[in-house]
Specification:
It is built from ten helices and no strands. By secondary structure, it is an all-alpha fold. It folds into two domains: 133 residues, no CATH class; 57 residues. It is globular, with a radius of gyration of 19 Å.
């Protein structure tokens, strides 16, 4: 892929993320399965393990996960121009759709047809987010420590209403503590054999 003409790669990046951007219903989390299918399965730009890390970093940074992910992948593939092409691709469909809706808002507003369309889209979005969560969980939670961190975070966010950013920072700090004070445990986690004792 890297031997291709630079312009072709930029166009491919733009079109790939434009296609993803056309399905922005439900926000960035609903796009995770689409992004994963395109960049891991179809394009093979990153591995499944790498994309989990990309999602984690993208979610930890300010901004929408889809935009952060596209920027990250674009930059990884071909540098700054790739980041710009991928980001433009994922953003442009939303800009076009929102502009059209703003222009014809009076037609769309309280229109039973559009209300019916969106009442069907919403449950589908929930399933996409659920699939994304299950896939990320399957690749990320591989040992007892991962399960403890996941369940603790779940309890903090759902029961105690702790902000997601604090939960992410807490997970990062836990990883740093394990890395510094329990290097053997850390090595097992990194090698994916945390339960093999």
């Amino acid at each position: 892929m890297f031997k291709k003409d630079k312009t072709k790669i930029l166009i491919e990046l733009f079109l790939c993320f434009f296609k993803i951007g056309c399905f922005t219903f439900g926000g960035g989390f609903a796009m995770i399965p689409l992004i994963e299918r395109e960049i891991v399965t179809n394009k093979k730009w990153v591995t499944e393990e790498e994309v989990i890390d990309v999602f984690a970093v993208s979610q930890s940074l300010p901004g929408a996960i889809a935009i952060n992910t596209s920027t990250f992948i674009g930059y990884k593939i071909i540098g700054r121009l790739g980041a710009i092409a991928a980001t433009a691709g994922v953003v442009l469909p939303s800009v076009i759709i929102i502009t059209l809706i703003a222009m014809f808002f009076s037609i769309f507003n309280n229109n039973p047809v559009f209300e019916a369309v969106f009442s069907g889209i919403r449950p589908a979005i929930v399933s996409l987010i659920l699939v994304a969560g299950l896939k990320i969980g399957k690749s990320s939670v591989k040992d007892k420590i991962g399960v403890i961190i996941m369940l603790t975070t779940l309890a903090l966010v759902t029961v105690f209403d702790v902000h997601a950013i604090i939960a992410v920072v807490g997970g990062a700090l836990t990883g740093i503590i394990i890395y510094n004070f329990f290097p053997k445990v850390s090595e097992k986690i990194v090698n994916g054999d945390g339960d093999k004792k």
